[in-house]
Amino acid sequence: MESQDAEFHAGGLAAGDAAGIPADGRGDGDVRVLLAGERIDTDSYSFVYTDGLRKLTAEGRSEGRVHIAARPLTDCLCFEFMCYDVHSRAGGDIRVLDVTGRSDPLDGALDFWLFDRSGVVLMHYAEDGTQIGRELYEGDPAPFIEYQRIALREPVPFRAYVNGGHRA
């Protein structure tokens, strides 16, 4: 376990749609919110996760992720991007790797979180995109460090992406 004084970095790779809330019931909600025409108030929304991001940022620590996406965005990704708007305002370093019209350099990579370049948690999803589990990966983190290196070569910051600055 890291001490409070240690540098902490969590980095994730999301390669697919996340349609629903995690099976454990924690999360920002569910895609049905978006489909019903509702929006999250990005200026005032607060949740345990966003509060944690604000705390990490205030402590000089970081959490980031790269989401692989292709246009047009699915309803699931539109919902997830609505949540990312809140997360980025709370201090999350969110980037988008747009693979529209080209091959995905990380095709086949599982969704994962890499902690301090040493611990890996694999994310598992049902066919509908609902998170159904997480698994602490016990093997060598080197492949995931390489995935992270590849993922960080080309993405654009989330805000630039949604404001039309996407790269294909």
Keywords:
168 residues, alpha/beta, seven-stranded mixed sheet, 5 helices
Description of the molecule:
This protein is α/β, with parallel strands linked by helices. The chain has helices at 31-35, 48-58, 75-89, 142-151, 158-165, and strands at residues 9-14, 62-69, 93-98, 112-115, 119-125, 131-137, 156-157. 29% of the residues lie in helices and 24% in strands. It has a 7-stranded mixed β-sheet, sandwiched between helices. The radius of gyration is 16 Å and the shape is globular. Mean pLDDT is 81; it is low at 1-7 and 19-27.
- Series of H and E elements: EHHEHEEEEHEH
Gross morphology: globular
Rounded to the nearest angstrom, the distance between the terminal CA atoms is 39 Å
How many DSSP-defined strands? 7
Reading side by side through the largest sheet, how are the strands ordered? 6-5-4-1-2-3-7
- Which consecutive residue ranges, at least 5 long each, have pLDDT under 50? 1-7, 19-27
Mean pLDDT across all residues, rounded?
A: 81
Radius of gyration: 16 Å
Strand content: 15-25%
Structural class: alpha/beta
Number of helices: 5
Q: Largest sheet, if any? A: 7 strands, mixed
Helix content: 25-40%
Question: How is the secondary structure organized here?
Answer:
Blueprint: E1 9-14, H1 31-35, H2 48-58, E2 62-69, H3 75-89, E3 93-98, E4 112-115, E5 119-125, E6 131-137, H4 142-151, E7 156-157, H5 158-165
Parallel strand pairs: 1-2, 2-3
Antiparallel strand pairs: 1-4, 3-7, 4-5, 5-6
